[in-house]
Amino acid sequence: MICGINVQWKQPIAYFLVSGSCTGNDLHNIIMSTIAKLQNISLNVKAFITDQGSNFLNFSKKVFVNNKHLIHFYNEDSKMNIRTAPKLTHAHIHKLVTAVNDQGKVIKSFNKRFDDLSEQLEKLSNDNIELNNRVSDLEKKVKILDQSNSTVHNSSDLDIINEILDRQSRANNILLFNFPEKLSESTSLKTDSDRLKLIFSKLDLKIEPIKLHHLGNKSNYDRPLKITLSDPKQTFDVLRTQSTLRTIPEFKDLRFSSDRTFKQRETMAKLRQELVQRRDKGENDIIIKYVRGNPTIIKSKKPIRYAPIKNNLVNDSQLDVHIYYQNALSLNNKISHLKSQIPNSLHDRNNHTSSLSRGGGVLIAVRSSFVSNRIIIHNNKIELLFVKIILPSHTLIISSVYIPNRSNIDVYNEYFDFVEKIFVKFPKADFLLLGDYNLPSSNLCNAESYFNDKLSYLNFFQYNHICNLKNVTLDYVLSNSINLNVMLDNCPIVPVDLYHPPFSDYFSIISYLGSINWPNLFYSNSNINENLDTFYYHIDYAIKNYIPKSRRHKLCYPIWFTHSTFKILKTTVSYTYFSDIRKKCNYLRYRDYKAFINKTQQSVKLNPKSFWNFYRLQKSINQLPSSVSYNEEANTGSGIVNLFREHFSNVYKTSTLNNSENFSFDNSSFNLNSINISKMDVFNELWSIKLNLSSGPDDISTRFFKETSFILSDIITFLFNKSLQTSVFPDKWKTSYVTPIFKKGDRSHVSNYRPISKISILPKLFSKLVNKKILPLCEKIICNEQHGFRPKRSSVTNLCIFKQTILNTFNDKAQVDVVYTDFEKALESIGFNNPLLSWVLSGLPQGDHLSPLLFSLFINDIVNVLKHSECLLLADDNKLFKKIKCIEDSNNFQVDLDNFYKWCYENGMTLNINKFSTVSYSLKKTTSYFDYSLNKLILTRKYTIKDLGVIFDSKLIFNKHVDYVRNKSFMKLGLLKRMCIDFYDSSALKTLYFSLVRSQIEYATLIWHTDNIGQNTSLSSIQNNFLRYLSYKCNVERTPHSEYNIINSLKNRYLTLNLRFLFKLLHNMIDCTELLEELNFK
């Protein structure tokens, strides 16, 4: 039957009757003949449909049609689609056509809406252009208005309203200055109110004050009196008539003033500063006067005259001088007897123009016979003065400076910028710089080094070597002239400050050390100990005479308190002012603590280790208990020290080795006499030494060696090389401070502490240089099994080799038996009897640079005694293991354990057999267990053990380690949350999370991490917890991959760490041939 597609019709055209089934060939012939006949009568066949019988499948194969290719080419011009299932009926086609027509209508409607939106968008774009033009015009008009109206204030409307209200509240107030608080006994007027009535009566005013109040704290000076009147008109009358008091001798010093607001005082201070600057430039006929109620600088109608003066400064002889000074508060008191005689003084800073409450002030006095003038500089931070004096033969420029205590390095930088500019402006002049620089009290440790560098750059030298009563140099006298001599003035203008804080005179120290003939002192004596005593004698002499000693006081207040907070806490006031003082104290305490927290956060971002300083300040944990025991009990300081001394002295043992056969290297290729330390090696180490390192038993600071590195490098180099050549380590350098560090167990028992030695700077520097020289030679000698204290190796490489050995054994269907050893006091219990290292007598102090290397050399031949098994070392952490297939393998392993014990006994190494343990790693259902023994003691068998920070189990599943890591990470995260309650910087919190928490999760992931969903979910909960905390704490987006807090997921981190380890292994950044052999590059 044939049917139409667009028009509904159908017509049977042929019937094929068979007695049996129709084959695929029959079906093919019928369909093809039918299609040919239809085409002959001009009917174009587009598609045909059949059922899904097996015959049709055979037919489809003949015409090469399948489910993916439904087109059959009948001839070159015509092609037909064969529809299989479902059958394409007219109903299906009709629905499809209807859906297509509906979709076309929807598309037409969308096109119409799109055209409408395009028209609207174009209209909005035109409107936007017009608005931009209008805004630009408005901005130009506003700018013109701002330029034309210079009197418009920048204050907001609220500030203006507050200022108006403040002035109205002060309108009834008036201030009275120079009003004496202490009255003479002869006067009959005892109260302030009675005396005020008398004053008002002299002014012909009938005024009754409402309230009287003295401003400020009680002192030796008369405080201003604040008077509250009933009417602002009365205030105006007092100010208008106060000039009458000048004619009354009793009241001529009194002065009334209105109660100005802060804005008014600020405006007046700026006007006074402008007045001073303009007078410095030559405008001497200007004054401040109120014009229409506003203070303004105007020209005076009457000329300002100064009376001729003679300054009686030296030996009461008459001498004309010009005095230039910057008037600070402390200097005001010292030159008060000169103020009335100084017409040319420059009042740059005084009580009205400065809010500072301490120190400073500089003064330069020049005879009037010399032509002098001040060099104007624009400076608001430093007490600095430059005066140029023109002499007959040359020009002299004198500078006086005071830099406050605890100044930042930027202050010194600004000062030298001024000096350099004037130096360039007057290149032929002689300079004389005098002043107090407060170098040691600066905030940065390198301030003095910066200061010395600048002097060297400008070719200035220090000439003042006069000491005060405390035998220290007070101030610097710097000059570029070689003809300069500094002498003591017997008639000083201002009194000498006996309590001025002194500073270290490294100029004198370098001069003293450079004047010593060191070759004559050293070369005449071949004893290294005597040479070192001579060296320390001169060093101690220089320190004693040129460096003052300071006494440290225990802080009674938190470390973040500033000077202003200390000052207000020590203020003694009456109860009337208690509320105000308490409010101010609370504010200052909050401000100081907030600044301290901000400083801590910035420090944490640069160095996460600084967090532990903050932790110790918050916790204040005492390291030692009040009572300890070791054979006996002690609860006093001296008793506790003696117990620790007894315990630690028993730890160090003298070597009992009788021969050097145990050492597996040749002395001819490794000789200390061949090691030579150059002067540049010593100088580079001294110059790069960290200033925050503490001194050792010799009490010489790192800063001393850094400052004197130029002069001491040659001397120290000689001492180092002589010690190597004579194979004698000086006795003075063997002394060290020992600090007990708690390990685990009972804190009150001395045996649970290990000693940490803090040696002096020079022996530590010596061992560091020797270590650099012999380390390349030792790398060829130390066995491959040692992974500790070696470059390109670590605990992770140790564990990787160990795990890979176990996995290879599992593939062979065998087991691995492991014995974990424990040396008792390993580093302290060894000694050398070999001539090569005879300058190290006994024991290795923990903290010395050579300790790890020498210990590795000492136990280097331990691998030679193991004939049947293997071992892996990380310093003194050692594990012995062997692949076990039969009982004979276990017996051979026991033989190696006996050889190991024998080696330890012969070399004086003490073993803690109670801490030995054995573990059998196997995947078999039945594991064979062998009782290994050491010195006839059966070793403890375990099924899980912590090896180098990773918990191994006998099946290598690591579930217990994941639980351990999760619990420890949550503990660290809890510590972070508790200690960082006041932190608000998300970067600081993330830095702490990375260093404290995520470092625990990511340690040795190559060993224990798997793709187990449960493990990954358990560990991811830690990071999710932190992200929730960070989101709540800092109000940041919680998504881990947001742009604000980029924290990669743990899954990506683990993949990155593994790839990074592989990259380092392939690029020789990790030296481990055992792991390279396991890689298959095919």
TrEMBL record:
GO terms for molecular function: RNA-directed DNA polymerase activity. Residues 722-934 form the Reverse transcriptase domain. Transmembrane segments: none annotated. Pfam families: RVT_1 (PF00078), TNP-like_RNaseH_N (PF21787). Keywords: Coiled coil, Nucleotidyltransferase, RNA-directed DNA polymerase, Transferase. InterPro entries: DNA/RNA_pol_sf, Endo/exonu/phosph_ase_sf, RT_dom, TNP-like_RNaseH_N. Residues 107-148 form a coiled coil. This is Putative RNA-directed DNA polymerase. It comes from Aphis craccivora (Cowpea aphid).
